[in-house]
From TrEMBL:
Record flagged with keyword Signal: yes
Keyword Amino-acid biosynthesis among record annotations: no
GO cellular component: cell outer membrane
Identification of the protein by name: Nucleoside-binding protein
Protein backbone atom coordinates (compact mmCIF):
# COMPACT_ATOMS: atom_id res chain seq x y z
CA UNK A 1 0.00 0.00 0.00
CA UNK A 2 2.84 2.40 0.83
CA UNK A 3 4.46 1.67 -2.55
CA UNK A 4 1.18 2.41 -4.31
CA UNK A 5 0.82 5.73 -2.51
CA UNK A 6 4.33 6.85 -3.46
CA UNK A 7 3.79 5.90 -7.10
CA UNK A 8 0.48 7.81 -7.21
CA UNK A 9 2.17 10.96 -5.96
CA UNK A 10 4.67 10.74 -8.83
CA UNK A 11 2.31 10.16 -11.78
CA UNK A 12 -0.77 12.20 -10.78
CA UNK A 13 -4.24 11.68 -9.43
CA UNK A 14 -5.61 10.07 -12.61
CA UNK A 15 -2.89 7.43 -12.65
CA UNK A 16 -3.38 6.82 -8.95
CA UNK A 17 -7.05 6.09 -9.51
CA UNK A 18 -6.17 3.69 -12.30
CA UNK A 19 -3.61 1.89 -10.15
CA UNK A 20 -6.10 1.58 -7.32
CA UNK A 21 -8.31 -0.57 -9.52
CA UNK A 22 -5.36 -2.84 -10.35
CA UNK A 23 -3.78 -3.13 -6.87
CA UNK A 24 -3.17 -6.77 -5.88
CA UNK A 25 -5.16 -8.23 -2.99
CA UNK A 26 -2.98 -8.68 0.09
CA UNK A 27 -2.64 -12.31 1.17
CA UNK A 28 -3.28 -13.39 4.74
CA UNK A 29 -0.15 -14.35 6.70
CA UNK A 30 0.80 -17.98 6.28
CA UNK A 31 -0.32 -20.20 9.15
CA UNK A 32 2.30 -21.68 11.42
CA UNK A 33 3.09 -25.37 10.84
CA UNK A 34 1.43 -27.83 13.22
CA UNK A 35 4.78 -28.41 14.99
CA UNK A 36 6.78 -25.18 14.91
CA UNK A 37 9.55 -26.57 17.14
CA UNK A 38 10.71 -30.15 16.55
CA UNK A 39 14.03 -31.10 18.17
CA UNK A 40 15.63 -34.54 18.49
CA UNK A 41 18.91 -35.61 20.03
CA UNK A 42 21.00 -38.64 20.94
CA UNK A 43 23.16 -38.59 24.07
CA UNK A 44 25.66 -40.80 25.78
CA UNK A 45 26.72 -40.39 29.39
CA UNK A 46 28.68 -42.32 31.97
CA UNK A 47 27.50 -42.64 35.58
CA UNK A 48 30.50 -43.17 37.81
CA UNK A 49 28.73 -44.74 40.80
CA UNK A 50 25.02 -45.51 40.36
CA UNK A 51 23.15 -47.71 42.83
CA UNK A 52 20.77 -50.66 42.73
CA UNK A 53 18.91 -50.69 46.10
CA UNK A 54 19.62 -53.83 48.04
CA UNK A 55 22.25 -54.93 45.51
CA UNK A 56 25.06 -52.41 45.60
CA UNK A 57 26.84 -49.79 43.51
CA UNK A 58 27.93 -49.91 39.88
CA UNK A 59 29.09 -47.63 37.07
CA UNK A 60 26.62 -47.36 34.19
CA UNK A 61 26.75 -46.59 30.48
CA UNK A 62 23.60 -44.76 29.32
CA UNK A 63 22.48 -44.13 25.74
CA UNK A 64 19.47 -41.80 25.32
CA UNK A 65 17.09 -40.62 22.63
CA UNK A 66 15.21 -37.38 23.34
CA UNK A 67 12.41 -35.65 21.44
CA UNK A 68 10.88 -32.24 22.15
CA UNK A 69 8.24 -30.38 20.16
CA UNK A 70 6.05 -27.32 20.49
CA UNK A 71 2.64 -27.22 18.80
CA UNK A 72 -0.35 -24.90 18.78
CA UNK A 73 -1.61 -25.80 22.25
CA UNK A 74 1.44 -26.99 24.15
CA UNK A 75 4.56 -29.15 24.24
CA UNK A 76 5.63 -32.81 24.15
CA UNK A 77 8.79 -34.29 25.67
CA UNK A 78 9.86 -37.94 25.22
CA UNK A 79 13.01 -39.59 26.56
CA UNK A 80 14.16 -43.23 26.24
CA UNK A 81 17.26 -44.50 28.08
CA UNK A 82 19.19 -47.72 27.55
CA UNK A 83 21.25 -48.33 30.70
CA UNK A 84 24.02 -50.91 31.11
CA UNK A 85 25.47 -51.60 34.56
CA UNK A 86 29.08 -52.74 34.31
CA UNK A 87 29.50 -54.51 37.66
CA UNK A 88 28.15 -54.82 41.16
CA UNK A 89 30.45 -54.05 44.07
CA UNK A 90 28.53 -56.04 46.67
CA UNK A 91 26.97 -59.52 46.51
CA UNK A 92 23.34 -59.57 45.33
CA UNK A 93 20.55 -62.03 44.83
CA UNK A 94 21.46 -61.81 41.14
CA UNK A 95 24.95 -63.11 41.86
CA UNK A 96 26.58 -59.73 41.36
CA UNK A 97 26.08 -59.87 37.59
CA UNK A 98 25.77 -56.71 35.48
CA UNK A 99 22.28 -55.89 34.26
CA UNK A 100 20.53 -53.92 31.52
CA UNK A 101 17.55 -51.60 31.83
CA UNK A 102 15.34 -49.65 29.44
CA UNK A 103 13.54 -46.64 30.89
CA UNK A 104 11.19 -44.33 29.00
CA UNK A 105 8.94 -41.43 29.92
CA UNK A 106 6.94 -38.63 28.33
CA UNK A 107 5.52 -35.30 29.50
CA UNK A 108 2.93 -33.27 27.61
CA UNK A 109 1.58 -29.83 28.45
CA UNK A 110 -1.50 -27.91 27.33
CA UNK A 111 -1.01 -24.19 27.86
CA UNK A 112 -4.01 -22.29 29.22
CA UNK A 113 -3.02 -19.15 27.27
CA UNK A 114 -3.07 -21.17 24.04
CA UNK A 115 -6.15 -23.28 24.75
CA UNK A 116 -8.26 -20.28 25.78
CA UNK A 117 -6.63 -17.81 23.36
CA UNK A 118 -5.77 -15.34 26.10
CA UNK A 119 -2.88 -13.72 27.97
CA UNK A 120 -4.64 -13.98 31.32
CA UNK A 121 -2.17 -16.60 32.53
CA UNK A 122 0.87 -14.36 31.98
CA UNK A 123 1.80 -11.82 34.63
CA UNK A 124 5.24 -10.43 35.43
CA UNK A 125 7.77 -13.28 35.18
CA UNK A 126 4.94 -15.84 34.89
CA UNK A 127 4.67 -16.74 31.19
CA UNK A 128 2.03 -19.50 31.27
CA UNK A 129 0.06 -22.00 33.31
CA UNK A 130 -0.44 -25.45 31.78
CA UNK A 131 -2.02 -28.82 32.37
CA UNK A 132 0.78 -31.41 32.49
CA UNK A 133 0.23 -35.15 31.96
CA UNK A 134 2.88 -37.84 31.82
CA UNK A 135 3.81 -41.49 32.17
CA UNK A 136 6.92 -43.60 32.91
CA UNK A 137 7.71 -47.24 32.15
CA UNK A 138 10.73 -49.49 32.42
CA UNK A 139 11.98 -53.05 32.22
CA UNK A 140 15.22 -54.77 33.29
CA UNK A 141 16.74 -58.25 33.34
CA UNK A 142 17.37 -58.53 37.08
CA UNK A 143 15.75 -61.05 39.41
CA UNK A 144 13.44 -58.23 40.50
CA UNK A 145 12.10 -58.06 36.94
CA UNK A 146 11.26 -54.40 37.28
CA UNK A 147 8.19 -53.34 35.28
CA UNK A 148 7.41 -49.83 36.42
CA UNK A 149 4.26 -48.21 35.04
CA UNK A 150 3.33 -44.79 36.37
CA UNK A 151 1.00 -41.98 35.41
CA UNK A 152 0.77 -38.44 36.71
CA UNK A 153 -0.96 -35.13 36.13
CA UNK A 154 -0.52 -31.65 37.51
CA UNK A 155 -0.54 -27.91 36.94
CA UNK A 156 2.72 -26.45 35.56
CA UNK A 157 3.74 -22.86 36.23
CA UNK A 158 6.31 -21.41 33.80
CA UNK A 159 8.53 -18.42 34.55
CA UNK A 160 10.93 -16.42 32.39
CA UNK A 161 14.53 -16.25 33.59
CA UNK A 162 17.42 -13.98 32.45
CA UNK A 163 19.21 -14.62 29.14
CA UNK A 164 16.19 -16.52 27.72
CA UNK A 165 16.23 -19.09 30.50
CA UNK A 166 13.09 -20.54 32.07
CA UNK A 167 11.78 -22.27 35.20
CA UNK A 168 8.92 -24.80 35.23
CA UNK A 169 7.47 -26.00 38.56
CA UNK A 170 4.72 -28.62 38.66
CA UNK A 171 2.83 -30.05 41.65
CA UNK A 172 1.36 -33.41 40.59
CA UNK A 173 -0.78 -36.39 41.54
CA UNK A 174 1.20 -39.63 41.04
CA UNK A 175 0.21 -43.31 40.69
CA UNK A 176 2.62 -46.25 40.19
CA UNK A 177 2.53 -49.99 39.54
CA UNK A 178 5.56 -52.32 39.72
CA UNK A 179 6.72 -55.95 39.72
CA UNK A 180 8.50 -57.77 42.54
CA UNK A 181 10.23 -60.87 41.23
CA UNK A 182 11.66 -61.77 44.65
CA UNK A 183 8.24 -62.01 46.28
CA UNK A 184 6.95 -64.02 43.34
CA UNK A 185 9.43 -66.86 44.06
CA UNK A 186 9.19 -66.77 47.87
CA UNK A 187 7.58 -69.98 49.24
CA UNK A 188 4.24 -69.32 50.92
CA UNK A 189 4.02 -65.75 49.63
CA UNK A 190 0.71 -63.94 49.55
CA UNK A 191 1.75 -62.33 46.25
CA UNK A 192 2.84 -65.13 43.88
CA UNK A 193 2.29 -62.91 40.81
CA UNK A 194 4.78 -60.35 42.09
CA UNK A 195 2.48 -57.53 40.98
CA UNK A 196 2.75 -54.34 43.03
CA UNK A 197 0.03 -51.67 43.17
CA UNK A 198 1.14 -48.57 45.09
CA UNK A 199 -1.11 -45.97 46.67
CA UNK A 200 -1.78 -42.75 44.78
CA UNK A 201 0.41 -40.00 46.22
CA UNK A 202 1.57 -36.44 45.67
CA UNK A 203 4.52 -35.36 43.58
CA UNK A 204 6.49 -32.31 42.53
CA UNK A 205 8.66 -31.73 39.45
CA UNK A 206 10.83 -28.84 38.33
CA UNK A 207 13.08 -27.88 35.42
CA UNK A 208 15.36 -24.83 35.51
CA UNK A 209 17.36 -24.01 32.36
CA UNK A 210 19.68 -21.02 32.61
CA UNK A 211 22.04 -19.98 29.78
CA UNK A 212 25.04 -18.23 31.36
CA UNK A 213 24.76 -15.18 29.14
CA UNK A 214 27.10 -13.14 31.33
CA UNK A 215 30.00 -15.37 30.22
CA UNK A 216 32.12 -14.46 27.14
CA UNK A 217 30.32 -15.23 23.87
CA UNK A 218 33.01 -17.78 22.95
CA UNK A 219 32.09 -19.82 26.06
CA UNK A 220 28.38 -20.77 25.60
CA UNK A 221 27.53 -22.51 28.87
CA UNK A 222 24.09 -23.55 30.11
CA UNK A 223 23.19 -24.63 33.64
CA UNK A 224 20.31 -27.09 34.17
CA UNK A 225 18.73 -28.16 37.44
CA UNK A 226 15.85 -30.63 37.43
CA UNK A 227 14.28 -33.20 39.67
CA UNK A 228 11.25 -34.87 41.20
CA UNK A 229 9.84 -35.55 44.64
CA UNK A 230 7.29 -38.31 45.28
CA UNK A 231 5.46 -38.76 48.55
CA UNK A 232 5.04 -42.03 50.48
CA UNK A 233 3.17 -44.63 48.42
CA UNK A 234 2.75 -47.58 50.79
CA UNK A 235 4.12 -51.10 50.39
CA UNK A 236 1.93 -51.91 47.39
CA UNK A 237 1.72 -55.62 48.20
CA UNK A 238 -0.79 -57.76 50.12
CA UNK A 239 -0.41 -58.15 53.88
CA UNK A 240 2.01 -60.94 54.73
CA UNK A 241 4.13 -60.52 51.62
CA UNK A 242 7.80 -59.61 51.80
CA UNK A 243 7.41 -56.11 50.35
CA UNK A 244 9.44 -53.04 51.25
CA UNK A 245 8.26 -49.99 53.15
CA UNK A 246 8.28 -46.86 50.96
CA UNK A 247 8.84 -43.25 51.98
CA UNK A 248 9.31 -39.84 50.35
CA UNK A 249 11.70 -40.02 47.38
CA UNK A 250 13.96 -37.16 46.25
CA UNK A 251 15.70 -37.03 42.84
CA UNK A 252 17.92 -34.02 42.10
CA UNK A 253 20.32 -33.52 39.18
CA UNK A 254 22.44 -30.58 38.05
CA UNK A 255 24.17 -30.34 34.65
CA UNK A 256 26.57 -27.82 33.15
CA UNK A 257 26.57 -28.00 29.33
CA UNK A 258 29.05 -26.49 26.85
CA UNK A 259 27.85 -25.89 23.28
CA UNK A 260 30.85 -26.85 21.12
CA UNK A 261 29.04 -26.51 17.77
CA UNK A 262 30.20 -22.90 17.15
CA UNK A 263 33.78 -23.93 17.93
CA UNK A 264 33.52 -26.41 15.03
CA UNK A 265 31.97 -23.86 12.67
CA UNK A 266 28.53 -25.46 12.98
CA UNK A 267 25.18 -24.14 14.13
CA UNK A 268 24.63 -23.53 17.86
CA UNK A 269 23.15 -26.31 20.01
CA UNK A 270 24.14 -29.06 17.55
CA UNK A 271 26.97 -30.62 19.57
CA UNK A 272 27.44 -30.27 23.31
CA UNK A 273 29.44 -31.87 26.10
CA UNK A 274 28.32 -31.78 29.69
CA UNK A 275 29.02 -32.84 33.23
CA UNK A 276 26.53 -33.39 36.00
CA UNK A 277 25.90 -34.49 39.55
CA UNK A 278 22.95 -36.60 40.74
CA UNK A 279 21.70 -36.98 44.30
CA UNK A 280 18.89 -39.51 44.73
CA UNK A 281 17.57 -40.14 48.26
CA UNK A 282 15.34 -43.13 49.09
CA UNK A 283 15.73 -44.42 45.54
CA UNK A 284 12.45 -45.89 44.23
CA UNK A 285 10.92 -44.68 47.49
CA UNK A 286 12.64 -47.44 49.47
CA UNK A 287 13.09 -46.59 53.14
CA UNK A 288 16.55 -47.73 54.27
CA UNK A 289 15.10 -48.67 57.69
CA UNK A 290 13.02 -51.78 57.11
CA UNK A 291 11.31 -53.98 59.75
CA UNK A 292 13.93 -56.69 59.14
CA UNK A 293 16.91 -54.30 59.31
CA UNK A 294 18.66 -51.61 57.29
CA UNK A 295 18.33 -51.80 53.50
CA UNK A 296 21.46 -50.86 51.55
CA UNK A 297 22.20 -48.65 48.54
CA UNK A 298 19.04 -46.54 48.75
CA UNK A 299 20.97 -43.27 48.25
CA UNK A 300 22.68 -42.52 44.94
CA UNK A 301 25.39 -39.85 44.80
CA UNK A 302 27.28 -39.85 41.52
CA UNK A 303 28.99 -37.67 38.93
CA UNK A 304 28.03 -37.94 35.26
CA UNK A 305 29.91 -37.09 32.08
CA UNK A 306 28.21 -36.99 28.69
CA UNK A 307 27.85 -35.68 25.15
CA UNK A 308 24.80 -34.83 23.02
CA UNK A 309 24.20 -34.60 19.26
CA UNK A 310 21.05 -32.78 18.10
CA UNK A 311 19.40 -33.28 14.72
Amino acid sequence: MLAGMLTAAAVGVASAADMATKAPVLKAPAELPFFFVNDNSISYHYEFLATNPGAGKTPKHVLSFTHFDVWKYGTNFINIDWLKATSMQTPTLDGGAPYTEIYGFFRSTFGFNEVFNTKAFSYGPLTNVSLMVGADLNTDNTQLGSAKRSIEAGIQFSFAMPYKGFLNVTPTVYKEWQHDGFNGITPGTTNPSGNVDFNTTWGFEWLYVQPLGFMPSWLPLTYKFFGTIHGPKGMGEPAGSAGLERTTEYYLQQNLSLDVGPWLGLRPNMYSVWGGYRYWVNKFGIDPKQPFGNFTATTESTWLLGATVAF
